[in-house]
Amino acid sequence: MSNGRASRRTWGEGSYPIMGMLKDRSDRAFALVERRHGDVSHCAGNEFAAADTMMLFPLSTMRAFAQRDLSPLLPIRAYLRRVGERPGDPRAVAKRDPGMSPMLA
Length: 105
Fold this sequence. Notes:
Number of helices: 4
Largest sheet: none
Number of domains: 1
Structural class: mainly alpha
Helix content: 40-55%
Number of strands: 0
């Protein structure tokens, strides 16, 4: 019976089946992005576009809250490096994530 308080159980994969499902979905999404960046330099092709701006949240900012090891994902790491080297990126980071250091590696 619930008393309205948050459960003290951990949210690890073994605790709730949905967590395993969410991890599988996340793994599939990262694999899709990995394949895409193996073929082209940016999300929508070979030029920086709005899609790149949108993808920076799950690939960089969200990792501050849901940790993800990108070390085996070489095309994604190369993509984040390219985006971070753009002249306008420091200004965009200041607006997008004030006070946060960009996770571009």
